[in-house]
UniProtKB/TrEMBL annotation:
Signal peptide annotation: 1-29
InterPro entries to which the protein is assigned, alphabetical: GH, Glyco_hydro_5, Glyco_hydro_5_CS
GO biological process, one term: polysaccharide catabolic process
PANTHER family, sorted: CELLULASE FAMILY PROTEIN (AFU_ORTHOLOGUE AFUA_5G14560)
Domain of life: Bacteria
Family: Belongs to the glycosyl hydrolase 5 (cellulase A) family.
Protein name: Glycoside hydrolase
An example Gene Ontology molecular-function term: hydrolase activity, hydrolyzing O-glycosyl compounds
Length: 639
């Protein structure tokens, strides 16, 4: 979210480490939750131009008909909290921009709900990112009447019940709604504020439990389409988040856990939005620090139980930079801010930190949603204004999905807001001709964009057994633990195993050339020996061969340490008996010339079947002096 450039936006300066070390907030025990409250107002619905649920095809988000749905969004904040962390919680002066949100979406004290939604439609947006805090979920105290002064039907309601009413109204009015866990405490983000990580002040399990609760709560609301897992994961006083180390600060693993739990326990219809890491290191010249964003995805991407539900996300503000915290004074370094970059340099930074993810035919290919960017209407800095024009031009030219921060604010308080309302409910903002941002906004909203049916494309997904199981098939999960004690990896339903690494325990899945090759039955075979290798069919002489039964193909594998433990095979829905070849990768890479799927095991030898093949066996050796991981694949031609 936006914060005044003069303030420290991100964690990490040496001074702040000392001054703010005691400010970590601990979540309280969860009280019983009230029942849902439904808004009594009924805004006029927009024309039904799209149908939920949403899913992904390559770099695009599509609706239920397979038509492109571009997220033209804005952030309706407030429910994540507005108190700055010092002074009185009841004094508006101690809330961000002097705006006390009372822990609910801003503006309900000034404008009727249906009036707000009508103004949202005038902006041309189709999606609302709706931040919330974990405190909001568990609060049982009704908001004061003044907080909903223009919406008397919401008096006496808790913050969660008011959130319910807002979600319901947005859905009825035709907006897609993406829920965003923004903070734990109802305190303004994003510094050293007790909200740095998903598990600041609570366990990862508690955090995931809250997500399951929220996803279930709105499962019947048709246009609730996404779960944006956590906002701006960043360094706290002492520690950095990481991507894949397997410890308690591993954002990659936490997002994987929450995503799979949401889709399996709560609502399989939702998009899962995973934001990159927003900041690591101490922002002091000479010390390592920076904004990784999505760069770790190149070598370690997510594979969740539905291969068509993953969206990656990043945030960009002009006063921050690839290695600049956004601070002025304490915490400021000599690194350039984004607004200091030339137009071409900015485009390169956006590509390198986020939009490379949209490259087709890679294990990481997914839509990229810039779920926060923005600038103030009162901004006079020429570099900042130029940045806003450059970045909106980039979004327009790249047909990007985006969400402006923020959507609603108070006149005379937050000039960043697209729409500002005075105490009488009168509106000013970007819809007015005097707002300098209007030209760039209109260009972004009206630039040519892909529309209509999106063709099916091959899906590629990575499997990783670095720190545990990666069983992403719901059908296999139903059968239980098929190799106890081993780390197991299985492709999501509809995909098959196409590649393996020699030592790193990585795999590559695809549906290219044969979508959903598996039969509809529940049969599967765990292969631990050579019993299915036919006489005269020694395709890897001197090596142990785990080969699928006739008519079967590989969807998974297991390892114990480096050693291959078992192969998991399932029968095909069509006869599978194509010609076979051995693909060796024990001494070098052996992959198709086009390298479809990308480097799914960076730094390790990899073997991969061609796009017109399926994998039917894995060979390995236990000879002294040899690595016990996979050495070869049996690749056969698809029918």
């Amino acid at each position: 979210m936006s914060i005044a450039p003069a303030a420290l936006r991100l964690t990490g300066t040496a001074v702040c480490l000392l001054l703010l070390a005691a400010q970590t907030t601990t979540a309280s025990a969860a009280p019983p939750l009230p029942s849902r409250a439904v808004a009594t107002t009924d805004p006029v619905p927009a024309a039904d131009t799209w149908s939920a649920p949403l899913s992904t095809r390559g770099r695009y988000i599509v609706d239920a008909h397979g038509d492109r749905f571009r997220l033209k969004a804005a952030n309706w904040d407030g429910a994540q909290g507005s108190w700055t962390g010092s002074g009185s919680v009841t004094d508006p002066a101690d809330h961000h921009a002097g705006q006390n949100s009372y822990g609910i979406p801003l503006g309900l004290d000034r404008v009727p709900l249906d009036g707000l939604l009508a103004d949202f439609h005038r902006l041309g947006i189709n999606t609302v990112r709706l931040p919330f805090s974990n405190d909001m979920i568990h609060s049982t105290t009704p908001v004061p009447d003044i907080a909903v002064g223009a919406n008397r039907q919401l008096r006496g309601h808790t913050p969660l019940q008011i959130f319910d009413a807002v979600v319901d109204a947005l859905s009825r009015s035709g907006f897609a709604v993406i829920l965003n866990n923004h903070t734990h405490t109802s305190r303004w983000c994003c510094g050293i504020d007790g909200n740095e990580r998903w598990n600041s002040g609570m366990s990862t399990r508690q955090w995931a439990d809250d997500w399951v609760f929220m996803a279930r709560r709105y499962a019947a609301v048709p246009r609730v389409v996404g779960a944006d897992l956590y906002n701006e994961v960043r360094r706290d006083v002492l520690d950095d988040p990481n991507w894949g180390l397997g410890d308690d600060h591993d954002w990659y693993a936490a997002a994987q856990l929450a995503a799979d739990r949401i889709l399996t326990e709560a609502n399989p219809r939702l998009l899962i939005v995973v934001e990159g890491i927003n900041w690591t290191g101490v922002p002091v010249d000479g010390l390592p620090h920076g904004r990784p964003m999505l760069t770790p995805v190149r070598t370690l991407s997510h594979t969740i139980v539905d291969a068509h539900k993953l969206v990656y996300s990043a945030h960009f503000y002009g006063y921050t930079g690839p290695h600049h915290s956004g601070a002025t004074g304490i915490g400021e370094t000599h690194d350039p801010r984004y607004q200091d970059l030339t137009r071409d340099q900015l485009a390169t930074a956006l590509d390198d930190e986020a939009f490379f993810v949209e490259e087709s035919g890679r294990h990481f290919t997914a839509p990229v949603w810039v779920s926060e960017f923005g600038i103030g209407a009162a901004e006079t800095n020429a570099a900042a204004r130029a940045w806003f024009g450059d970045i909106t031009d980039y979004f327009a030219g790249h047909d990007a999905d985006f969400a402006y921060w923020p959507l609603v604010g108070f006149e005379g308080h937050d000039d960043w807001a697209l729409l500002r309302y005075d105490s009488a409910g009168h509106r000013t903002g970007i819809l007015d001709s005097g707002d300098w941002r209007a030209a760039a906004w209109q260009h972004l909203m009206t630039a040519p964009s892909a529309a209509g049916p999106v063709p099916d494309v091959a899906t590629w997904r990575m499997l990783s057994t670095d720190h545990g199981d990666a069983v992403e098939s719901l059908r296999v999960r139903e059968t239980g633990d098929w190799d106890p004690g081993a780390h197991k990896a299985v492709c999501p339903d509809g995909l098959r195993l196409a590649g393996l690494s020699h030592t790193a325990g990585r795999g590559l899945c695809t549906d290219g050339g044969a979508p959903d090759l598996r039969t509809s039955g529940a049969d599967q075979t765990v292969v631990v020996d050579e019993r299915h290798v036919p006489a005269g069919g020694d395709w890897a002489s001197g090596y142990t061969k785990l080969q699928c039964p006739p008519g079967g193909f590989l969807i998974g594998y297991s390892v114990r340490g480096e050693r291959l433990s078992a192969a998991l095979c399932v029968p095909g829905r069509v006869p599978l008996s194509g010609a076979g070849r051995t693909v060796w990768f024990d001494r070098s890479d052996n992959r198709p010339v086009d390298a479809a799927g990308g480097d799914f095991a960076y730094g390790d030898y990899k073997g991969q079947c061609a796009a017109n093949e399926y994998a039917a066996g894995i060979a390995f050796t236990t000879r002294v002096g040899s690595r016990p991981g996979p050495d070869a694949l049996l690749c056969r031609t698809l029918p």
